[in-house]
Design brief:
Blueprint: H1 4-11, H2 22-26, H3 28-38, H4 41-44, H5 49-59, H6 73-83, H7 90-95, H8 113-119, H9 124-140, H10 149-154, H11 161-178
Bound molecules: zinc ion (ZN).
The site of zinc ion has 7 residues, from loops.
């Protein structure tokens, strides 16, 4: 007996060929087959090539860096997606032909990361809280830097790891409170 999800799971898998030799196992066909079978189900079952490529890239982007692993998983993922330019912001989706307009749903301006974090009036309240808190961190470190998109997305080289972690925490609270799930 197998339930519906297990059946769907199997439906899109290839049978692996029997092998008894590492050389054969690692050669192109068997290794591609097992890579394919090991893809998460929600990616393996995508039928549109562009969407498949997009999701594949999104799932297997850039090698991890310790700072960038900071935070609650959902908000951390949104933060990471913005960093690697594969986010749900319309500007990024438009670049991958996944939406018809790059514009923000609230303004007639492209929904770039800069627009989302620093400009869009829809998130004024959340942004004020974020910028106030980051300004405090900069002040503690005797920095008068303007708060740029780079600091929000990559952290600052002038801050210690601990302070950058705090910046990330604050940015991820903004992401969560914005309700945008970018
Ligand atoms: Zn906007």
């Amino acid at each position: 007996m197998c339930d519906q999800s297990t059946r769907t799971e199997r439906k899109y898998k290839f049978n692996t060929l029997p092998f008894d030799h590492a050389f054969y196992r690692d050669s192109i066909i068997p290794s591609s087959t097992s890579k394919w079978n090991n893809l998460p189900n929600h990616i393996r079952t995508i039928t549109k090539l562009d969407t498949f490529k997009y999701m594949l890239k999104r799932e297997y982007v850039e090698p991890p860096k310790p700072l960038f692993h900071y935070g609650e998983r959902t908000n951390q993922m949104s933060h990471t997606r913005i960093r690697v330019k594969f986010s749900n912001l319309n500007f990024h989706l438009f670049n991958y032909n996944l939406v018809t307009s790059p514009n923000c749903n609230h303004c007639n301006l492209p929904e770039t990361p800069n627009h989302y974090f620093l400009i869009c009036p829809q998130y004024d309240q959340e942004r004020k809280e974020m910028l106030d808190k980051i300004r405090q961190i900069l002040r503690i470190n005797n920095l008068n830097n303007k708060i740029t998109l780079d600091i929000l997305v990559y952290g600052s080289k002038k801050l210690s790891h601990t302070f950058n972690t705090q910046v990330f925490h604050i940015v991820q609270i903004f992401i969560k409170k914005s309700g945008r799930n970018p």
